[in-house]
Amino acid sequence: MRRLAALLALLLASLLAVPGAGGAWAQEPARLVIGASSLTAEGRDRGRPRPMDLRLTLDRPAAWRVFLVADPIRLIVDVEGLDFGDYRPEQLFGAELVPAIRWGRFEKGWSRLVLELPGPYRVSQAHLRSRAPEPQIHIAIEPVAEADFAPRPSATAALRNLPDPVAMPPAEDRERLTVVLDPGHGGFDPGAVAEGAREADLVLAYALDLRRELIARGIDVQMTRSDNRFVSLESRMTIAREAGADLFLSLHADALPQGQAAGATVYVWNPASDDLAARLLAERHDRDDLLAGVDLSGHDDALATVLMDFVRTDTQPRSENFAAFLTSRMAMAGIGLHGRPVQGAAFSVLKSPDIPSVLLELGFVSDPVDRANLTDPAWRARMVGALADAIASWGRDEQQRRGLLRQ
Length: 407
Fold this sequence. Notes:
By secondary structure, the chain is α/β, with parallel strands linked by helices.
């Protein structure tokens, strides 16, 4: 199984790696010239999508890329090293023409701008005018019929930027458990917000407390973020692989329409789940993390998909076993649980076939009772203790399982 997992990592690295762009423009970061940048639309607003022009003026040329993605429909513009300064997205001239606009640091020296669009579009022009008084990225988009919308295929973006294979000792030969904690959202993505409570801040506080508790118990801990920064979904998965994680635990405290969800809920990977709340949460997670989609089911990756399904026959039961430990310890600690405390969902951060992975909704900030608990230090301490107990107990169970497998 270890050899197969290693083969899978090598295969994915070769299939999905995207070479970096930059080269000749490796120098001081470019800065956005906000006063000379704009978003404009053609014609009068008649309640229908209109052709639009995005112009981003920079103080120097920079490598860049642009593509469209779906669910929701977005125009993504990545610029290497772009410094947005203290400017806010709403300060861009014409920002009110689109449902939402966001920008910020993205990954490995890149910055990202995201425009949510009012309907399906195609990119009709895209070029960098480097000979102008100031370099300018010009992107023209025009509305198209739903059938003609061609967003970027996401299979090749799924595990982009995989690290080089790392020589790790076999998991059963390592005495210390390695856990990667993943506080959701962060940076310019606050997650769910209700009555002043921000999901990104709440889950980070829980993760930091849990890290301290686990380290005190002799467990190695890595975090996908330890401060208020944005980390893409694919980067969170990569961090777990680089750490040689035995377990990946993603923490959230989301929002759903009133009456849809309350109480702590544990999610494991299940792409066939048809639960409405799980689908809404999956859309929120992928939307708020500004990803170009993480979908490993593309036709071009049929071989990789088969290998992943095979590897998951080992990791999926272990994920489900951890979910059972988690709900048991939370119940013992008097933590209020959802009516169905363990559910399946197609959350992108659960897609790693080689690492047991679970996403925990600590509670829902949209629910008044959950929100009061989530912001209560005493309740947080109780939850952190239950999580640490579950992780430590699962780790001991894993050691026993490995011992039986060696016999």
